[in-house]
Amino acid sequence: MDSRMQVHPPKGLKEKLKARIRSKVRFWVDGHQVRYFDTAGEQWVEAEYPSYPSLKLLETVPADRKVPVKVGKYAGIHYTTVIIPGGMHHFDWISSVHGHVGANGEWEQADDAIFSKGPVTIGSDVFIAYEAIITSGVTIGHGAVVGTRAVVTRDVEPYSIVAGNPAKHVKYRFEEPVREALLRIAWWDWPVEKVRQHADLIHSNRIEEFVSAHDPAVGAPGCPRC
Partner of 82 at 20 to 30 A CA spacing, among 109, 128, 206, 223? Predict the structure, then answer.
């Protein structure tokens, strides 16, 4: 299995018709600046397998599509999530819009007027809730949670819960020793078969049992299933 999720072009008349209708509806709802993760041929999201990042990208200028957007494994991202990979204005310039009417009556703007702060990186085991917005240059650490309608403008630490506009740290999901142990274990990097075998434990609050059985810092794994 490829480590990257792939979106394939629609096959057959029925699928092509559904894709065309979906594209039209999206255009009516969100306008021409919004691009979708599942548009075949526009692989602007690099998502590791297994993950299916149902998110949108707000493209303010064509250069935005060159900004890398990377998503880790087992990431749960609500389809209303919007990533803004660019769209930054120079607020230390005299003008805030950076545009003027040229001699031909057309709107003119400097090539470097709109910029990006860099790639957007979303770690593994991350949950991003309804209508969250993530701006350029942000890294969201493994295991983090982004609350509903949060506007993320700065990096989010692993296993941190953030909320609000701008998004601020609310609390950590676990105490520091547990966070460090989970990052060492990095269960999301296990083969999918191994994750499946441990699903009842991973999808539970049996933290101490899981950590003691798999933390490499403790010594050899003590898990009878491994």
Answer: 109
The answer as to whether 5 is a domain residue is no
pTM (2 d.p.): 0.80
Answer yes or no: do 210 and 127 share one domain.
no
What pLDDT, on the 0 to 100 scale, is given for residue 1? 32
- The token pair at 89 is 């204005």
User: Please, what are the averages of pLDDT over each run of 10 residues along the chain (226 residues)?
Assistant: 46 63 54 56 73 76 72 92 87 86 86 86 96 96 98 98 98 98 97 95 95 85 77
CATH number for the domain harbouring residue 48: 2.160.10.10
C-alpha 42/C-alpha 45 separation (Å) is 8
DSSP output for 103-146: TTSSEEE-TTSEE----EEE-TT-EE-TT-EEETT-EE-TT-EE
Closest Cα partner for 110 from 89, 86, 83, 131?
A: 89
Catalytic-labelled residue, pool 89, 90, 98, 169: 89
In a domain, 6, yes or no: no
- Domain shared by 132 and 223, yes or no: no
Report yes or no on 203 lying in a domain. yes
CA neighbours within 13 Å on the CB side: how many for 71? 27
